[in-house]
Design brief:
The complex is a heterodimer. Chain A is an alpha/beta fold. Chain A contains 2 helices and 3 strands. In chain A, helix 1 links the parallel strand 1 and strand 2. In chain B, the strands form 18 sheets. In chain B, strands 5-2-1-29-41 form a 5-stranded parallel sheet. In chain B, strands 14-13-12-15-27 form a 5-stranded parallel sheet, with helices on both faces. The chains are: A alpha/beta, B alpha/beta.
Chain lengths: ~70, ~1450
């Protein structure tokens, strides 16, 4: 795992209706966050399966966020 | 089909002639009400025109941060509706539009809509925002309540629908309007203010090839029109123009001008190289023509060269402008006089423009004019300007008041004249030369002989001038100046220079041209192909003439009609002095005189060195800042240059459109109370006093402070915030409650603590009105969980502590035993406290704007005194005009949930009216049949978008596309400037088809807004829309990583790789239509159930109406009088009409609206029971409604659109069971009055509920007339309790319900059961009541507000006062919740002397019954009533 916070791989699973829209708004407001954070859109945060969270870690994610 | 809304103009008659009903609805107002109504109607098969005055829909809700009582994000709730409305094929959104009139009848109206220009073509705009980034005009942003700036081209808010930009423009700025060539002065001044000098020069050059010349010598009519002159001095436009050209040429160098390719074969000859000739040459060369300019003199420039001395226009400066024109590829032939232009045509020129200028100096018309020593200014100046020498005598007289005369005087002085006299026939302020020019020549040494005219030139025998005779002048007939006899005098003079005006002429041409005539409009001469015109001698007019000649010649050569095409009339932003002052006030502009450039010191004015210095940069910036930006948009065209899809159209004009619709829904909304009117609260003076809407924006993450609440004065986070309630509500000028302020203040208070947990919030209110579902719990949570303090005290004024801008409030605290400084409130001791707060929020109420009142007047609907729409009690959505419905706060202040209910209700009424035409005007999009791709491997086409510079400016878009091409399954990757532009969408469809691609990826913005658009292009290519994936490389990449080019590019590649990996896995998804059962089941036969059933039937759907009892009507059966009985103007239309103040106005509305219906309604509906009878009749007569009485719902199964339910009739399952199929269910099971044992209910006949009391009042009222005035019986008192409504038995409710009780449980009270007494007895009972106490919030109402009890109490109190004015009434309450217009009842009750006593749950009232005689006492644990009620013996 990297020591540098900016290099931490964060996967954010976001609900299409709220958190994903919030991530869009963050862009609209030109807020900044590290490029290593990636948003994956879900139809609903209830769609997330724990296996997917674990899989993200398995594949090298340093952190997983589920937002909805 | 009977009419639900009871209007005579109902579809029943119209349906007989289907063509007379239009299946379209106009919805006025694009707030949440308008959007909801539009979606309902469009979904049910009607065409909708949604008319909004702003540039986007969304209304107030779009400004809100959160919604109560759930703290949901307002935008997250609204945005999907916005997008849906924006994309709905059957909703046409008309933005920037106003409805100015509606003609016709219900079912068939013609609505007139004034559509103001948006100046942006929405079909082209991709909403990339590049235009806004370059706009130099910053304005206060109304969406942010002016707490943040916006640009003149902008979106109303980021999520706005329609998503395109819009330009705010009042019209053409007067400076531009006054300029013959339409120089965009406001535009280049705005650019100067932003130090964008090169752009400013480019903008000037768009209309003017001589910026350096006009920056020095223009007669600048623009400055004469400048609105700023109305408040101090006009802006120095000419000096700014010179500054731009001088500065740009000095610091950025001259741009190399490239020759324009010759794309036309025609040759044009221009005779004369003055401003007109060279302008024509430039324009024609730019159009691709071949142009030769013929000039008789050895130099080009015409009068600019020969008429203006170098101390005003240095020759090099002029040559610079001329050289730039020649460099375009203009052929200039010097020393080539043309005597006969027709020979040019013979030589092969296709057209000739005679631009020979104004060379003919007028005569002095005085004796001696022909003598040696009398010269014409024009000749003299030409000689000097061409480098020759002119001999002037020592004493020179110049005759004339124009700039040539001044120039001649200045030249004379520089040529050695010792004395120069300038003869002006008029006062110096009235001559054509500007005052400062006369002042300067005077300072240089000339003597100004104003109001004098030269009458005769004196000479010697050799006809050489020796002097002049002159006299004072006065204005004679025809505004001509004539000498005053007897004032003659003489002067010794050597040279007389005449400069009394010039005219154009063709005298130097071949004699055949001496009398040639031309048409000033078309510029055509008698000779076809030869054109000429007159510029009146001003350079800028000559340039205008040149432009006109070029376009005329172009049309002539293209063989198009020679007359100029008519230009749209764009309004001019010309202001009155008051308007100018208002703008100065709005923008806080400091009044100050213009900044004038420095002048050459007098001692240096001996040569032809330029006398006027350019403005310094700082001077120019100061002067540019003086511009008032009259047109708002400056028309600098920066947006046009920035727009990659040519979406900006600056010459759009207002259009008036007529639309045929069947119904109109009015949802124009409210405006927040203008808090500056309440000066005592200091809004506008004290920076930290803000309104609740402003606070809402401060809380919003997308607001001006990105969601951090900061004090406007110092940007500190406020630690102590006070909310002042009822600002603009419940006061002398607003006899109504705005119904939302208590809750939004609570919400804002909670949110401010959520943001900053250590914030202390104190709300000052009169009553807490948390009357709707979940509101009471929200209020309690605010107190218990968040520690928000609520104090019942109306603050009278706010003071500011000048040291820290804190606000000081004085208030009376809740009663306290310990406090020392005490005053009396409610008979108890209270404390006056003075406290300082960091911020004060004014909870502003709702008002109707002047604009909306005007709308109401124009549409002929009746409004009340406050401008709210009149609706009748039982037809709350029906306006006074049939076919026009009202929804939302336009009819009464209300919150979002109730507004949405209104909107759907109004949509249902409109749908009922137009039911026969459902589906006749809707559009459906046709797609090609879907291709089967199940056997194909994934073939992915990917389009990577630059989004103008939004993506392309921050990461390497071509590189991303290149990378995508290398990934598996990708058959095509390309990058486009705007992937969502119309042509790109078509291109995607084409490419997908050509390549046989079966998956589409767009790497661009967000699927939330753009996904459906691209899915559409996929469907158009014959593919399933779910074979689509988007990579969000804008909102979630380029915009958030704008400082990291490489990292952003890498992330974009990764997002694209992820999208490709997913796309390869995609499979087609199919939605399949399900047949639905178009029948509804309505459970509950009360007023709600009946109304729903009738509305559904009206809309053409069969209904099963299920009622457990043996009659319809529910609680309505127990209602006997309504608030209409008390003649409140807002609710009672006839009473409103009798109000003297608005009487004439109301009559005018009515005349306009032909509102027979309301009179009709009024006459029909006088009492609830009559209304119920009418409804029952309508239900019975309606073949679509099946009524199931004494029936309950036993079981229901199925799903939306297809339910199966079992109805069980008879009691205890004894009757038959019926199966019904239905697509929708409406649960309207209602509630019953709570009748628990609190306060001794059930133990004494004098303790009754309000419903019981109402029945008693009604009986008494009915018997009033028959009442005998017999011997008085014993006096009686009654104690009434008013309880909460409870939901009746119903499986859908979450609370548990008791079996409905018999109307009055356990005991029969003679007072509450009128059947047991005769009418006369009942009447006497009421008449004899001496005192009545009403206790509010009984039973379940302690937990939640039952919404109607306060109003019912008011109503019954008023009725009692009417029947028995002597009765003493005391209302014991917690909060009086007469929200909306119900407040008027409360006001009236207070006026009539009803006493109000407050209690809290920890000190509830107690009722004591006296033994035997049954004395009862009411009083709280802390004795909240000041004195016990008088003893009241039992009646029986």
């Amino acid at each position: 795992m990297s020591q540098n916070g900016d290099k931490l791989q964060i996967i954010a699973f976001c609900c299409h209706y709220c958190a994903y829209a919030a991530a869009d708004l963050a862009g609209g407001m030109r807020l900044k966050y590290p490029p290593s954070i990636k948003v994956i859109e879900l139809p609903c945060s209830g769609k997330i399966n724990p296996v997917q969270v674990l899989k993200a870690f398995e594949q090298g994610a340093d952190g997983v966020m589920v937002a909805g | 089909m009977p009419s639900q809304n009871g209007t005579p103009e109902n579809p029943k008659s119209k349906t007989q002639n289907p063509k007379s009903v239009i299946g379209a609805v106009m919805v006025v107002g694009g707030g949440i009400a308008g959007i909801q109504a539009s979606l309902d109607l469009a979904e049910s098969g009607f065409k909708v025109y949604l008319v909004e005055t702003k540039s986007a829909i969304g209304g107030h809700m779009a400004q809100l941060d959160k919604t109560f009582p759930t703290n949901d994000c307002a935008m997250c709730t609204l945005s999907p509706k916005l997008v849906e409305a924006g994309r709905h094929l059957n909703i046409e959104i008309l933005t920037n539009s106003e409805v100015t009139g509606v003609d016709g009848e219900a079912g068939n109206f013609t609505a007139t809509v004034r559509r103001k220009p948006r100046y942006v073509d929405l079909n082209r705009c991709t909403s990339c925002g590049d235009c806004s980034a370059v706009c130099p005009i910053s304005l206060p942003n109304p969406y942010e309540l002016n707490m943040a700036p916006r640009k003149a081209i902008d979106k109303l808010y980021p999520q706005a629908i329609p998503s395109g930009f819009a330009i705010e423009k009042e019209g053409v700025a007067p400076c531009r309007d006054g300029c013959p060539i339409g120089q965009r002065a406001q535009g280049y001044i705005a650019l100067i203010a932003e130090r964008r000098y090169e752009e400013a020069l480019r903008l000037i050059q768009k209309d003017n090839p001589f910026p350096s010349v006009c920056g020095r010598t223009c007669h600048h009519p623009c400055e004469g029109r400048c609105n700023r002159a109305k408040v101090d001095e006009s802006v120095g436009i000419m000096a700014l123009k010179r500054f731009v050209s001088d500065y740009t040429y000095t610091y950025f160098g001259r741009k190399r001008v490239e020759p324009v390719p010759k794309t036309r074969n025609e040759w044009v000859a221009v005779v004369g190289s003055g401003p007109a000739g060279l302008t024509t040459a430039q324009d024609l060369v730019n159009m691709g023509y071949r142009v030769t300019v013929f000039e008789a003199l050895p130099v080009a420039g015409g009068l600019m060269r020969t008429g203006i001395p170098a101390h005003r226009l240095p020759k090099g400066i002029l040559q610079r402008d001329i050289d730039d024109i020649l460099a375009l590829g203009v052929d200039l032939k010097l020393n080539t006089p043309v005597e006969d232009p027709t020979t040019l045509l013979e030589e092969g020129y296709d057209a000739v423009f005679l631009a020979t200028g104004v060379y003919e100096e007028a005569h002095l018309d005085i004796e001696g004019e022909e003598m040696t020593g009398v010269v014409k200014a024009i000749d003299m100046l030409r000689e000097v300007n061409l480098g020759g020498t002119v001999k002037v005598g020592e004493r020179v007289a110049v005759v004339g008041g124009g700039i040539s005369a001044v120039d001649a005087a200045a030249v004379s002085l520089r040529m050695g004249a010792k004395e120069v006299y300038l003869f002006l026939r008029r006062p110096r302020g009235e001559v054509p030369a500007y005052q400062w020019e006369i002042d300067e020549i005077e300072r240089e040494g000339a003597r100004i002989m104003q109001d004098h005219t030269v009458t005769c030139v004196l000479g010697d025998e050799n006809q050489k001038v020796t002097g002049i005779e002159f006299a004072e002048a006065k204005m004679g007939k025809g505004r001509r100046y004539i000498p005053i006899e007897g004032t003659e005098d003489t002067l010794k003079i050597d040279t007389v220079i005449s400069a009394v005006g010039r005219s154009s002429g063709l005298s130097f041409l071949n004699s055949s041209f001496q009398s040639v005539t031309y048409n000033p409009k078309t510029m055509e001469t008698d000779h076809p192909g030869i054109f000429t015109g007159d510029s009146k001698g001003f350079i800028v007019n000559a340039i205008a003439l040149g432009h006109k000649a070029a376009s005329t010649i172009d049309r002539y050569l293209r063989k198009e009609p020679i007359t100029e095409p008519k230009k749209p009339a764009i309004p001019v932003a010309k202001w009155t002095k008051e308007e100018a002052l208002a703008r100065v006030a709005r923008d806080n502009i400091e009044l100050k005189p213009r900044v004038n450039p420095a002048m050459l010191p007098m001692e240096q004015r001996v040569s032809f060195q330029e006398i006027m210095a350019p403005l310094t940069e700082q001077q120019a910036l100061d002067e540019a800042a003086r511009c008032l930006q009259c047109g708002i948009c400056s028309e600098c065209l920066a947006c046009v240059d920035a727009c990659g899809v040519d979406a900006i159209v600056h010459d759009m004009v207002e259009q008036v459109e007529e639309l045929n619709v069947g119904a109109v829904i009015l949802a124009p909304g409210y405006q927040a109370y203008q808090s500056k009117l309440s000066e005592e609260y200091g809004w506008g003076r004290y920076p930290n006093v803000i309104t609740s809407l402003e606070f809402e924006r401060l809380l919003s993450a997308s607001g001006p402070t990105t969601g951090h609440v900061k004090r406007p004065s110092d940007s500190h986070t406020p630690k102590k915030i006070a909310f002042l309630q009822c600002i603009g509500s419940r006061d002398q000028s607003h006899n109504y409650c705005s119904a939302v302020c208590c809750m939004y203040a609570t919400k804002e208070a909670i949110m401010s603590i959520e943001h900053e947990p250590d914030t202390q919030v104190h709300v000052f209110m009169m009553d807490m009105r948390s009357f709707s579902k979940g509101y009471e719990g929200y209020y309690r949570q605010a107190q218990n969980k968040y520690g928000i303090k609520y104090t019942r005290c109306r603050i009278s004024s706010v003071k500011e502590n000048p040291e820290n801008n804190n606000l000081i409030l004085r208030y009376i605290d809740s009663p306290s035993e310990e406090a020392e400084d005490r005053s009396t409130v409610d008979g108890r001791r209270s404390t006056v406290i003075e406290e300082e707060f960091d911020m004060v929020v004014l909870s502003v109420g709702m008002e109707i704007s002047d604009k909306v009142r005007e709308l109401g007047r124009n549409l002929g609907v009746e409004l009340d005194d406050y401008g709210f729409c009149h609706t009748a009690l039982f037809q709350p959505l029906q306006t006074s005009r049939p076919g026009l419905y009202a929804a939302g706060p336009f009819r009464e202040p209300k919150d979002i949930p109730e507004t949405v209910v209104d909107a759907s209700g109004a949509a249902a009424l409109a749908g009922g009216l137009l039911a026969p035409e459902r589906g006749t005007l809707v559009t459906r999009k046709a797609y090609p049949p879907e291709k089967d791709i199940s056997q194909e491997d994934a073939r992915i086409a990917i389009f990577v978008c630059h989004c103008g510079s939004n993506i392309g400016g921050f990461l390497d878009v071509p590189d991303v596309a290149e990378y995508a091409r290398t990934l598996p399954n990708v058959v095509h990757a390309e990058h486009t400037l705007y992937t969502c532009s119309q042509d790109s969408i078509a291109h995607i469809t084409e490419r997908v088809k050509e390549l046989g691609a079966n998956r589409l990826i767009v790497a661009a913005c967000t699927p939330l807004t753009h996904g459906p658009l691209f899915q559409d292009s996929l469907r158009a290519a014959g593919l399933n829309p779910y074979l689509f994936e988007m990579a969000n490389i804008r909102n979630q990449c380029s915009w958030v990583h704008s400082d990291e080019w490489d990292a952003a590019t890498d992330k974009a590649k990764e997002l694209v790789r992820m999208a490709i990996a997913r796309a390869a896995q995609l499979e087609p998804l199919h939605t399949s239509p399900m047949p639905t059962e178009k029948t509804a089941l309505v459970i509950g036969g009360g007023l709600a159930g009946i109304t729903a059933a009738l509305s559904l039937a009206e809309q053409g759907f069969p209904v099963h109406l299920v009622e457990r009892n043996d009659t319809l009507g529910g609680n309505l059966r127990h209602l006997h009088h309504t608030i209409l009985d008390f003649g409140f103007p807002i609710l009672d239309l006839s009473a409103a009409n009798s109000q003297s103040k608005t009487c004439a106005e109301q009559r005018a509305y009515r005349a306009k609206s032909r509102c027979r219906s309301i009179q009709n309604l009024k006459s029909k509906i006088v009492s609830p029971q009559q209304y119920l009878a009418e409804l029952e009749e309508q239900v019975e007569a309606n073949p679509l409604i099946t009524v199931h009485l004494e029936t309950e719902l036993a079981r229901t199964s199925g799903f939306v659109g297809n339910f199966n339910s079992t109805l069980q009739s008879g009691s205890n399952g004894a009757g038959q069971r019926i199966e019904v199929r239905h697509g929708a269910t409406i649960v309207a099971t209602g509630g019953v009055e709570y009748r628990g044992d609190e306060y001794g209910y059930g133990t004494d006949s004098r303790i009754v509920t309000q419903q019981e009391f109402e029945t008693l009042l009604a009986t008494s009222r009915g018997a009033e007339e028959q009442r005998s005035r017999g011997a008085e019986e014993q006096g009686s008192g009654a104690l009434l309790t008013r309880e909460g409504e409870r939901g009746s038995k119903g499986k859908t409710e979450s609370i548990s319900f008791a079996k409905p009780q018999s109307p009055i449980p356990n005991f029969q009270s003679p007072i509450s059961n009128p059947k047991s007494k005769t009418c006369g007895e009942q009447s006497r009972t009421i008449q004899n009541l001496k005192s009545v106490v009403m206790i509010l919030c009984v039973g379940p109402a302690e937990q939640y507000c039952a919404r109607i009890c306060c109003t019912t109490a008011m109503k019954n109190a008023l009725m009692l006062k009417r029947l028995n004015p002597a009765a003493e009434i005391t209302v014991i309450y917690r909060d009086i919740r007469t929200y909306g217009f119900k407040e008027q009842l409360y006001t009236e009750a207070r006026r009539l002397g009803v006493r109000f006593v407050r209690y809290d749950f920890d000190r509830k009232p107690e009722v004591h019954l006296r033994q035997g005689a049954g004395e009862q006492r009411s009083g709280g644990a802390n004795s909240i009533t000041p004195a016990p009620l008088p003893p009241a013996p039992l009646h029986n």
